[in-house]
Amino acid sequence: MTNNNFAVLVVEDDKHDVRFLKRAWKINQIANELVIVPHGQACLDFLRNEGDYHDENKFPKPGIILMDIRMPVMNGIECLQQIKADQSLKTIPVVMLTTSKEDEDRLKSYKLGANSFIQKPIEFDEFAQAVQAINLYWELSELP
Question: Which domains are present in the chain?
Fold first, then answer.
């Protein structure tokens, strides 16, 4: 993602995980801006430029979404379903980045169109490696 000039939308309610992600982003020297929203409804508002995110110049479409599953207001599975059902949003890659170990969550995510499903490691070093792997994957997929 380092060579692409787009924001990464992170849908995460856990402040500890957000702090881990920001730290891993910095350690891996990823240049893409991180934009954090706390739940699925805020993600949809951001993507549709509604509510607090109405200014599309200030809140442009992200190049990729990293989404947790278990969140208040609207969970990640519900949000993913709405993103992939919306013609104007469905092409945005979505990576489910979650602590869930449920096979049902993994299968449902892929059935709904998630591009990847990654379990969040508990230890920071492993978390930083997971972030590096996400970055490398998207860099390689964007090569001409």
Answer: 8-139 (3.40.50.2300)
